[in-house]
Amino acid sequence: MSKANCLVAQSGGPTAVINSSLYGVIMEASNSSKIDKVYGGINGIEGILKKKIIDIFEIPYDKINHMKFTPSAALGSCRYRLKDYKENDEEYKKLFDIFSEYNIKYFFYIGGNDSMETVYKIHSYAQEVGLEINVIGIPKTIDNDLLLTDHSPGFGSAAKFIATVTLELALDGEAYETKTINVMEVMGRNAGWLAASSALVKDKLPDLRHLIYLPEVPFNEEKFLEEVNQAYKEYGNVFITVSEGIKDESGNYIETGAGSYKQDSFGHRQLGGVGDYLEYLIKQKIYKRVRMTRLGFTQRSALHFASQVDFEEAEKVGRKAVQFALNGESGKMVAIIRDNDDPYVVHFETVDAEKVCNEEKLIPTSWISEDGTYVKDEFFKYARPLIQGEVKIPIDGLPNYISLKHQYNLW
Amino acid sequence: MSKANCLVAQSGGPTAVINSSLYGVIMEASNSSKIDKVYGGINGIEGILKKKIIDIFEIPYDKINHMKFTPSAALGSCRYRLKDYKENDEEYKKLFDIFSEYNIKYFFYIGGNDSMETVYKIHSYAQEVGLEINVIGIPKTIDNDLLLTDHSPGFGSAAKFIATVTLELALDGEAYETKTINVMEVMGRNAGWLAASSALVKDKLPDLRHLIYLPEVPFNEEKFLEEVNQAYKEYGNVFITVSEGIKDESGNYIETGAGSYKQDSFGHRQLGGVGDYLEYLIKQKIYKRVRMTRLGFTQRSALHFASQVDFEEAEKVGRKAVQFALNGESGKMVAIIRDNDDPYVVHFETVDAEKVCNEEKLIPTSWISEDGTYVKDEFFKYARPLIQGEVKIPIDGLPNYISLKHQYNLW
């Protein structure tokens, strides 16, 4: 069998460990006798369609190794959905012309839900028209909303950072005799995994009064104010974690103006997000000393305090993707299957990308407390192993991250 | 000479390394043949006036050592200003009754501007009425606005965290072909040291287009929009750091509604802070893809990635305070005097607390670029040595911080 080439690209929102998966693909592919060249697609499928493709080994190995100790997508990312090929196959023809030109027989796509749809579509098209390609999706999302995998690389590091910041903010909030209500806004449009991860602080600060507002639980302003008021009266210091994606009973995002948020603004869009709004509500109705923190994109890029378990798994799913592709699999996503919580043991399988891409994995209702403001033991057992260990990045005052984009003018 | 006791307390906003200063006082005092007991005042001078005083060595040594690897004030803090004793000396009489009851001859107060005023007032009162006490202030503030000291412990760690997050957010913002404008809101009401510290990212990402809005430079909305527009057109990706304390030409905080911020809200207080407002302005006038991050109190509590230089200096100023007090000094603050930038060398002196407490140290105008949106080489030379090294905290998934408040029900 003659050698073929492989192509790897990254898509969607980056994570702290997304380049560890890229590194895993590159290393495993370069070890295989079946694979000749390893190509990198710049800015995901969007860039590949513009033939923005580089030969990875034109980059010296020390930089490839260094790249994994750098957050954000080293090859660049995109948010680009391929059309349905049954309606329009133009892009697919173009894509396979490019694959043919580069003799690409293996394609690895590191991403979330949309990326798994891309994996499924390219695989299906190839099957339909009889083209030879092995397409494997590599899971990546801090949101942890991919189905059929125990969890997604990127989540553990985001969870570790969020819980650490929760701990530090909670301690800071307790310094005074005067009580403090902390409001921390975290990411998560539909799935509350990130917001829930702040609960892990319980292992270090068991008597913190902590309320967590998840997108899985419809948000009711009156109930919220009652809960905060009661917690404040009973404990004084209260920590509130809120997911950016909480919605009212009708499914409207609070952020864009549901409930009294809408009425108060007299038709004018209020500035700020849901965290600002909860801060405003509490200040108006309960207590003045409220602090709001919006972690923003720090959550997905904080490699300076990332999980070593997550970092290693990210590399492993990359390596496994190459092994599965070489075994002839296609249209699949690498999934992490958990065998045991403590000691933590996992293995890797493939699942149909088609089954992953159409739905988001939410926190099971049975893992959420009855009143909807906290998570149960199941969540702790699930999340604890994922935040263990710290990635040892090179540091010289600041982290010594390397930007391939800047060094090679990639895009 | 018979032995006397000492008292140490913490005041104002905590920092990541404030407990390192506390540790320094405790260790140095416990080594002295002149000092018998080391007392800790709970919640600063406010708690001391309520006789909330503990014998530090009732806490086992391993916990005292562990405490320094914990952010937030271990003994609690306060924001309490003593009255002028010439108008009302009631509090002072009470305070010295308590000092007398506990045989306290040395008082160490870890804090910022207001705390140095307290040091000065207690010292002056004692002098006036002929009471024996040595009062020494120990500098602490992430804002770095204390006069007569090269810098203040707490600043280096906050600067390191802010610059690290700037680097991570900037890399994340460059992942797409689509450009991103990042807006990061940091602390600093009047002094821009924290906002300026995000410039340190230049050492790692030299071609980042970075605009920094400092409280030292009057904010003009039109000029701001021109600057951002030009940077966006020329570079695409732009990083904006804004101090929460920026003010318009008349000295009104933008945060509370200066300029068009006020007009747009139709008399209703807008939600959010200055970062939200700049995000809104840019989205309205220049470009839609803007991301706002509000670091909030994470800046002063991020011991998970704190500066070892800062950590060690914080302990040293604590130790030096004890030495200076034992040498008979009073009404003074320990100051860090820089002898050399590279290699970085400092020594410690005392300065009059009175001269420190009446003014805030701002960034020198000559260190700010002509257009007011960046800092010059002088700032880099100044700040670089302060962020070196990382504090090795104990970690078990999350940082193993210890809360004396919780363990001993201190307040």
What tags apply to this protein structure?
homodimer, 4-stranded parallel β-sheet, Rossmann fold, 7-stranded mixed β-sheet, 411 residues
Please describe what this structure looks like.
The structure is a homodimer of 411-residue chains. With 411 residues, chain A is of the alpha/beta class. Chain A folds into 2 domains: 4-154 and 302-357 and 388-408, 3-Layer(aba) Sandwich (Rossmann fold); 156-299, Rossmann fold. Helices cover 37% and strands 18% of the residues of chain A. The first copy, chain A, has 15 helices and 13 strands. Chain A has helices at 18-31, 44-48, 61-67, 90-101, 113-129, 155-173, 193-197, 221-235, 259-264, 274-285, 298-301, 308-326, 353-357, 377-383, 404-408, and strands spanning 4-10, 35-41, 53-55, 104-111, 134-139, 181-186, 210-213, 238-243, 290-294, 332-340, 345-352, 395-396, 398-399. In chain A, the strands form 3 sheets. A 7-stranded mixed β-sheet of chain A has the order 3-2-1-4-5-10-11, sandwiched between helices. Chain A has a 4-stranded parallel β-sheet with strand order 7-8-6-9, with helices on both faces. In chain A, β1 (4-10), α1 (18-31) and β2 form a beta-alpha-beta unit. In chain A, α1 runs parallel beside α12. The longest helix of chain A has 19 residues, at 155-173. The radius of gyration of chain A is 23 Å and the shape is elongated. Chain A starts with a strand and ends with a helix. The interface between A and B is large, with 73 and 73 residues.
